[in-house]
């Protein structure tokens, strides 16, 4: 899952922080509370997750427990990819 974390952090750094490494929060920090992401950024993040990891993010899954923080995102992607591989 280290690769997933690096991929997500790279997206956040490049797309949301415009390369400002000093603003990259710790994995367990809230992206919303730290000012890294807003509602538009969440939509960009969801699109990135769907394309990069070939998962489908449902409306019911767009909750902080899944999407607010790098650690939460890594765990969410792991659950989704595991569920998809079991289903397929």
Keywords:
single chain; 88 residues; mainly alpha; Non-ribosomal Peptide Synthetase Peptidyl Carrier Protein, Chain A; ACP-like_sf; PP-bd_ACP; Acyl carrier protein
Protein architecture, described:
This protein has 88 residues and is an all-alpha fold. The chain has a single domain (2-87), classed as Orthogonal Bundle (Non-ribosomal Peptide Synthetase Peptidyl Carrier Protein, Chain A), CATH 1.10.1200.10. 59% of the residues lie in helices and 0% in strands. It is built from four helices and no strands. The longest helix is centred in the last third of the chain and has 18 residues, at 70-87. The radius of gyration is 12 Å and the shape is globular. The relative contact order is 0.17.
Précis, in short:
This protein has 88 residues and is an all-alpha fold.
Give the overall pLDDT as a whole number: 95
**Major sheet description:** none
CATH topology: Non-ribosomal Peptide Synthetase Peptidyl Carrier Protein, Chain A
Q: What percentage of amino acids are in beta strands?
A: under 5%
Q: Number of DSSP helices?
A: 4
Spell out the blueprint of helices and strands.
Layout: H1 2-16, H2 39-53, H3 64-67, H4 70-87
């Amino acid at each position: 899952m280290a690769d997933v974390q690096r991929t997500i952090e790279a997206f956040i750094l490049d797309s949301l922080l415009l390369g400002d490494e000093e603003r990259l929060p710790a994995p367990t920090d809230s992206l919303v509370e730290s000012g890294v992401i807003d509602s538009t950024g969440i939509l960009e993040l969801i699109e990135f997750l769907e394309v990069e990891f070939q998962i489908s993010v449902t409306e019911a899954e767009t909750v902080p427990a899944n999407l607010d923080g790098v650690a939460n995102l890594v765990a969410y992607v792991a659950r989704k990819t595991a569920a998809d591989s079991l289903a397929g």
